[in-house]
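hiii, so i know i said id send this last week but things got crazy w the move. better late than never?? heres the sequnce for the chain we talked about at the cafe, plus the structure i predicted for it. fair warning i was half asleep when i ran it
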Amino acid sequence: MNNCNCAEALQHSFATANDAPMGGEYHAIVAGCELVVRSEEEWMSLYRCRTCGRFWAEACYDSGHVFFYYLFPAPQSDDVVRWLREEAAELPPS
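okay and structure toks below
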């Protein structure tokens, strides 16, 4: 049985990195996804949900003491890989 956590996660505001799924919620979403591409230059990755097809961008928030990985929905695009490599930006810290 596939468990898709995307609909619930999309209830976040995604206005800042602190609003995005982190910790357990982050891990639950990533567990249902496959890695599409990683951009070493951007320090970001793109995942696709195996159940619903939603694309998630993964970014890293530096709190000054520890790095927190978080997810936010990638915009609807004909080429999400190009978006990641050319346009993607992390969410503002807070």
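btw Helices lie at 6-9, 23-31, 80-86. thought thatd interest u
miss u guys!!
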